[in-house]
Amino acid sequence: MNVDILLGKTVDHLVPVEGTKYFVHKQMLHDFLKLQKEAELAGFDLQIISAFRDYDRQLAIWNAKARGERELLDDQERPLNYATLSPTEIVFSILRWSAIPGCSRHHWGSDIDVYDAKTQRPEMVKLISSECEQNGPAAALHDWLDAHMLQGSSFGFFRPYRTDRGGVSPERWHLSYYPLSRRFLEAYTFSIFKNNIENGHIHFKEVVLDNLPEIYQRFLMNFDLP
Ligand SMILES: [Zn+2]
Fold it and tell me: Fewer C-beta within 10 Å: the chain N or C terminus?
């Protein structure tokens, strides 16, 4: 296993998704297109709104949030007041919604965020729970996906953030391709995690270093299985 794939530091494993600006793992594209076709037959337009993200992009997201330049949200998706939070509180509130650079499943090309282009314009998609639940515009698509996952007919796709396990917040829009992401996760050892933090230039690095085992367990290894 090439460690650079785990950390978002190579694009060698990727192919473009035709007609979009997104890239996914080359071994995942075929099954994604099958899932998309099934969704189309059921009346949905399953589209990607985020796929592969590289290390530097994740670093920009992390540092903007850690410096208070980008909104931080609480568990109910309400804005937090940056000025009142300690560095430790800031780090753990970022982790509920965003990964540390080098630790995102989006580095692997096996994970995507999706929406229903029948009911949502891409520029309006915010990736918040209310879009995907009850009467939200993507709720019907996600109910349909749930049914297919239960039947084992989702072509390998599942929801790693289906329930709240105290780590990453539930993200109904986030799908993962199990045949690949299982292998990536198995390869992602604590020592790879530790080296990545030590060698990175992330804001509040010292806080992360002080909480390495907890962050590794709660936010990387802690997710729902298919
Ligand atoms: Zn995602």
Answer: N
